[in-house]
Amino acid sequence: MKNQNSEPSLKPGSPMTERKPWPMWPIALSILTFIILYTWVQLKFRKEEKPYEPNYEMQERRNQVAEKNLYDWFSLNAAPSAETNDNTLSSGHIAARFISGPLENDLPSQIVYYIPRRPILIPQLDSLASQSSFSINQPIKLQLSLPEAFGDSPNFKLATFYKEGELLILAEMRIENAKALAAFDIQSPSKTYLFEIDTVPIETASVKAKFYLEGQVREWTIERIGGPTEK
Questions:
Q1: Exposed, middle or buried, 204 (CB in 10 Å: 0-12/13-18/19+)?
Q2: Residue 108 burial by CB count (10 A; 0-12/13-18/19+): exposed, middle or buried?
Q3: In angstroms, rounded to a whole number, what is the distance separating the alpha carbons of residues 177 and 216?
Q4: Among the listed residues 189, 110, 181, the one whose alpha carbon sits nearest the alpha carbon of residue 146
Q5: What is the phi/psi pair of residue 54, to 5°?
Q6: What are phi and psi for residue 140, nearest 5 degrees?
Q7: Strands of the 190-197 sheet, one edge to the other
Q8: Which value, in Å, is the radius of gyration of the alpha carbons in the chain?
Q9: pLDDT in tens, 174-202
Q10: Per-residue pLDDT of the chain in tens (231 residues, 90 and over written 9)
């Protein structure tokens, strides 16, 4: 007697039924369509942006300081004078003050933001003299004595900023880092230098000047003579 629960057996030689695989062309078409659509959307709606260029960005910030920036600070030209001495200048009205904390705490926040890096200031200043007043459109003169190893270096600069009666002068060495200062002989003979600072943007009746070197600032007031003044 035949078992009713047994499965029918295939006849010898009969083909076995096979499941056909899904066709791949609809999937490939979907992927290709998505790529084309995504590319079109990116090209159509993306915003054009300049590539990030660190050197360019740093130079742009320097250029902003070189002229008038958003906070009304001016960068004034402080050029070496052809003269080497000026007997009309004095140091009696200039007071010295030591900076106990970081330089950034003593500078206006706008200056700290716009200067590309912390300035490397000269470590020693033997003397500083200036006039107590200046005439309209005439430069402010500074006579400073410092080790000639620093003063004769082409990397020695006076970075000068002005805003609303405040004049900031940073005596800096534009070198790679603070360690590079070791290449300059601080024991070299002292030499006197004369600088002239442009005063065209200055319209206040007086100017509070600050001269910065490493760990110290010299402060004095300069009166402006002639011409209209800002209150």
A1: middle
A2: middle
A3: 19
A4: 189
A5: -55, -45
A6: -85, 125
A7: 78-80, 190-197, 140-147, 127-130
A8: 36
A9: 999 999 999 999 999 999 999 999 998 99
A10: 545 555 555 555 555 556 666 677 778 888 888 888 888 877 777 656 555 555 555 555 555 545 545 478 899 999 999 887 788 899 999 999 999 889 999 999 888 888 878 899 999 999 999 999 999 889 999 999 999 999 999 999 999 999 999 999 999 999 999 999 999 999 999 999 999 999 989 989 999 999 999 999 999 999 999 866 655
Q: Which amino acid is at 160?
A: T
Task: Please identify which residue in the block is written with the tokens 């740093």.
Answer: 58
Distance CA 122, CA 43 (A): 53
Which 3-state string (H, E, C) describes 166-211?
EEEEEEEECCCCHHHHHHCCCCCCEEEEEEEECCCCCCECEEEEEE
Q: Which residue type occupies 193?
A: Y
Q: CB atoms < 10 A from the CB of 203, how many?
A: 14
- Backbone φ and ψ for 218, nearest 5 degrees, come out as -105, 135
CA distance 10 to 1: 20
Question: What is the distance between the alpha carbons of residues 24 and 26, in angstroms, rounded to a whole number?
Answer: 6
pLDDT on residue 69:
52
Residue 175 is which amino acid?
I
The two tokens of residue 229 are: 């003044």
Q: What is the pTM of this model?
A: 0.69
Helix residue ranges per DSSP H, the chain: 25-45, 54-66, 109-114, 148-151
Are the C-beta atoms of residues 161 and 74 closer than 8 Å to each other? yes
Token output for 220:
């004095």
Structure tokens that stand for 114 in this block: 């716009």
